[in-house]
Amino acid sequence: MHARDTERETAALRALLDLSAQLLGAHTVREVETVLTDATLRLMRSRYVYFLSVTPRQDALLLTYASGEADPPLGLRLPRRQGLAWQAALAGPAVLMVDKHHIPGSAVRVDRAPDQHLLYAPLITSHQELLGVLTLGRIDPPFSAQDQALLLAFAHAGTVALERAREEQKVAQAREDTLLVLGLAMEARDYETQGHTRRTVALSQRLGRVLGLETSALDDLRQGGYLHDLGKLNTPDRILLKPGPLDQEEWTVMRQHTLTGETLARRVPGVTPGALQVIRSHHERWDGQGYPDGLAGEAIPVLARLFSLVDVYDALTHQRPYHAPLSPKDALTLIQAGRATQFDPALLDAFLQVVQDGDAES
Q1: Nearest one of 60, 13, 18 to 36, comparing CA atoms
Q2: Cα end-to-end span (Å), the chain
Q3: What pTM was estimated for this model as a whole?
Q4: The HD-GYP domain covers which part of the protein (predicted)?
């Protein structure tokens, strides 16, 4: 073997290892598409790389990500059997290589795009399911047989990563559905609270994003929102649905729902420690007069402080057994009265802005 051939094989192996390492850090389908496309552009020295995804019914290829000097717009749709990408997909799993001087009339051309040497690599699973097509182009030099082999390896690595990401997505969605069902189970006991779970989760996510929370914290907040009232499943109807004020004994029972909820949530697979803090501590108060632990100020977990604002606002603005709904304006006035006693002042300011902005948009 010549030294130059050895160097090329070594470079190709490094490129494949580099791509594989980057794909390990990609956990969603979109992240895999992005990493695969960007890395292929760099490692294959192409003018552009496109990722064409398969539509759900597999009747078209859709341009979902482009890297480099992109000519067609994102969202470009190729109906089944139209263009060289489909030719490669239907003939796969080999890579289709086309010289720029011999581009067939069946190719889909983009206005003002120069003639280019082309490579098409279908991403096909072991069960013969088409996931997409990786498309490369460069003006010169022509792609080589080694380029063809390297892109095939890239396509295999991308296929494995996409399958993993899709499975992770299914698991995450199943968990999300489970948490929502548990939240709705509580609402099923009382018609007047229906919608509370979805509303508080949605509003707390808006507030969290405005505050710049990281993805993991938003996940904690969402889980905690779904399950924050889980412990009320153990609260007797005579207390939970009582139309008037609770007496001291009834309040003692009601306050147990945060601890019961935390205990039950610990048994749900995948529930995070941050979510458990929301469930346990969302009735704590800034002045230390809340429950179950009498925490005060910043000793209260920040996500619980945040969620308490959302929870109280939604309870005030919707029908409950013990009160008629308030207007958003009256509810906000009442919440502002709790500044530095019930609520964290800094979070309260952010919350007021989010709610007011939301009202302006609606």
Answers
A1: 18
A2: 70
A3: 0.62
A4: 171-362
